[in-house]
Write the structure tokens for this entry.
Amino acid sequence: MHIIIFKTNVFTPEQAGRVQGLLLAFPSIIQCNFDLYDCDHILRIVSTDLQPQRICQLLHAEGFSCEEMESFVYQG
């Protein structure tokens, strides 16, 4: 599994819910959540195999900024 962390400009719970709905349509996304209280409005995605560029493209198409911060490969 991959854990990918993004910096976004998603500010409200309504915006986060809209984006989460779009993200969960990807079969390879297991979980996604926002930390709207963090200064970087963090988006965390747990995925089996997903390119971070696709997430950034999706958010940009919806009018949000998105920048990959970190990625981890979880081997548990």
About this structure: The longest strand covers residues 66-73.
